[in-house]
From TrEMBL:
Cofactor(s) needed: FAD
Name assigned to this protein: NAD(P)/FAD-dependent oxidoreductase
Gene3D superfamilies xrefs: FAD/NAD(P)-binding domain (3.50.50.60)
A GO MF term: oxidoreductase activity, acting on paired donors, with incorporation or reduction of molecular oxygen, NAD(P)H as one donor, and incorporation of one atom of oxygen
Superkingdom of the source species: Bacteria
Keyword Glycoprotein: no
Alphabetic keyword roster: FAD, Flavoprotein, Monooxygenase, NADP, Oxidoreductase
Record InterPro entries: FAD-binding_Monooxygenases, FAD/NAD-bd_sf
Family recorded in the similarity comment: Belongs to the FAD-binding monooxygenase family.
TM annotation in the entry: none
Positions of region (Disordered): 241-260
SUPFAM superfamilies linked: FAD/NAD(P)-binding domain
Length: 541
């Protein structure tokens, strides 16, 4: 390889939704782009999370790219909430349609990204021994991709088949006649358990914390529905971009405490029918006022009691440790009813914690459960885990992990002071997981591409967040979170699921629409809060 062959305009780490679009967009600008992806194919989260029942909790017609109008007109989503398989097929199609695979080295994990101050370039090395340099380093590493397998005593001694939902094998897992244990009742566990229960002989659910979950109300999309959506796609996308969460759904005009009980129930009935995590958005005060939240909580808890035949089991499935919505509400299909089956057992780890995993199964303080298959639905080192697993170094060899030892610090979620020409896509400090991740990715990539246009047209080599701007943005993110009920939950949003991880509410919770406006204003002001070629930008440059 000649030196020139290994020098690129941009390196894109990750071939998920944001990485693929970044490659597309940067190539449109005429850039030489090198992509790296640790998996064998494209898709990111949707490549790895193949567990039974895996589906998106954002409607398929919204959870899809908007940049290619012909694509959105041509593609036919079959269900309201797409399966993992359908989303992966879609992303494969996008990659083929725009020849995006050719930019990537697959089965290649980036191990380090180091900024060379003298050259003003990033040096990126991989586990395959490849080293390249690039002017821009784009981290599209995903927010729910670094799996968390808790350090339970004896974890690796289990002699049967063992899987993590986030690293699911490509070959089908045969549950027939098997005794299956599932540890974890977050979105992954709650989606997988009903499907596994249909096939397996026995399912034992090891639940540490119950979760709120709302039926998806999934259905096939008819030709008429699709025709209407497609005729109005531009408006649908416009509404999504100014919305709080990146979909065209807006809450009731009044707060839950401003309407009478009949109206409140009518609204909750309506949002219950819409299905899934959107329930958080029924009333504008639901996530900021405990009293308002309690009305939503009581409504959902009554539904759980209706769905579960055994009242004692129902009580154990009702959360008592967080306001509804402060952990992501799960979007399920038949979850609570699964506990009415004879072959499903709930083990309440709050009462009897797991003491160890043995060769034959799981032991709690009270009993031993012999299993053939053990599934870890135990989540992710969310938002920062995929970044901290790469040795990322900015000016003076400063490590990103050290800079973030008290929690992630970014400006706009996009940039970090001391790390010039590095952009994080959909990461901490941006609306990220609180928004529709596809439109989020497009917004970030479009912003970065416009920024590159600005740099090039002004002959500016580097852009870097100022420390002051990052400090202010972190303070703004914290203030926004503090005005809500979210920090009261031990959620992965807060880093609370990973022992030793700093407790910081990581996404920006000021709303996707507001965030888009802020990013546009920063750009219009000559990249306010950024230093261009080492000089702090001001409103008049
Ligand atoms: O992970 P989680 P997930 N012993 O962290 C339990 C998105 N997603 O993969 O709460 C026993 O939510 C843990 O218990 P606790 C979505 O944004 C979306 O399910 O820590 N249990 C919890 O029950 C979602 O929020 C979709 O007490 C242990 C579970 O494991 C996010 O991904 C589908 C334990 C982990 O739940 C993460 O969801 C799937 C231990 N030592 C995922 N350690 C859709 O689009 C952990 N747990 C629908």
């Amino acid at each position: 390889m000649t030196t020139q062959d290994s020098d690129f305009d941009a390196v894109v780490v990750g071939a998920g939704i944001s990485g693929l679009y970044a490659v597309y967009k940067f190539r449109q600008r005429g850039m030489r782009v090198q992509g790296f992806e640790s998996a064998e194919g494209v898709g990111g989260t949707w490549y790895h999370n193949r567990y039974p029942g895996a589906r998106c909790d954002v409607e398929s017609i919204d959870y899809s790219y908007s940049f290619d109008d012909q694509l959105q007109q041509e593609w036919t989503w079959t269900e309201r909430f797409a399966t993992q398989e359908e989303i992966l097929r879609y992303l494969d199609h996008v990659a083929d349609r725009h020849d995006l695979r050719s930019a990537y080295d697959f089965l290649t994990r980036v191990t380090s990204a180091v900024y060379d101050e003298k050259a003003g370039r990033w040096t990126v090395t991989t586990d395959t021994g490849k080293t390249i340099t690039a002017r821009f380093c784009i981290l599209a590493t995903g927010v729910l991709s670094a799996t968390n397998k808790p350090d339970i005593p004896g974890r690796d001694t289990f002699a049967g088949e063992s899987y993590h939902t986030g690293e699911w094998p490509h070959e089908p897992v045969d549950f027939a006649g098997k005794r299956v244990g599932v540890i974890g009742t977050g979105s992954s566990g709650i989606q997988a358990i009903p499907v596994i229960a249909e096939a397996a002989d026995q399912v034992v659910v090891f639940q540490r914390s119950p979760n709120y979950s709302i039926p998806a109300g999934n259905r096939r999309l008819t030709d008429d529905v699709l025709a209407e959506v497609k005729a109005n796609y531009a408006e649908r996308r416009r509404l999504s971009r100014i919305s709080g969460g990146g979909t065209p759904n807006s809450p009731h005009p009044k707060g839950a405490m401003e309407v009478d009980e009949a109206e409140r129930t009518r609204v909750y009935d309506e949002w219950w029918q819409r299905g899934g995590y959107l329930f958080t958005k029924a009333f504008p005060d639901q996530m900021v006022s405990k009293a308002a939240n309690d009305t939503a909580r009581v409504y959902v808890e009554a539904k759980i009691r209706e769905m579960v035949a055994d009242p004692e089991v129902a009580e154990q499935l009702i959360p008592d440790d967080h306001p509804i919505g402060t952990k992501r509400i799960v979007t399920d299909t038949g979850y609570f009813q699964t506990y009415n089956r004879d072959n499903v057992t709930l083990v309440n780890l709050r009462r009897t914690p797991i003491t160890e995993i043995t060769a034959s199964g799981v032991r709690t303080g009270e009993a031993s459960y012999d299993l053939d298959i053990l599934i870890f639905a135990t989540g992710f080192d969310a938002m920062t885990g995929s970044l901290s697993r790469i040795d990322i170094r900015g000016r003076d060899g400063r490590a990103l992990t050290a800079e973030w030892s008290a929690g992630p610090r970014t400006y706009l979620g996009l940039a970090v002071d001391g790390f010039p020409n590095m952009f994080i896509l959909s990461g901490p400090g941006s609306p990220s997981v609180l928004a529709n991740m596809v439109l989020m990715a497009e917004q970030h990539v479009d912003w970065v591409a416009s920024c590159m246009d600005h740099l090039d047209s002004h002959e500016i080599a580097t852009i870097e967040a100022t420390r002051e701007a990052a400090d202010d943005w972190v303070a703004e993110c914290n203030a926004k979170a503090a005005g809500t009920l979210f920090p009261t939950a031990n959620s992965w949003y807060m880093g609370a699921n990973i022992p030793g991880k700093p407790r910081v509410f990581m996404p920006y919770i000021g709303g996707f629409g507001n965030y888009n406006t802020i990013c546009a204003e920063v750009a219009a002001a000559g990249y306010k809060g950024f230093a261009l070629d080492g000089r702090a930008a001001s409103a008049d440059n």
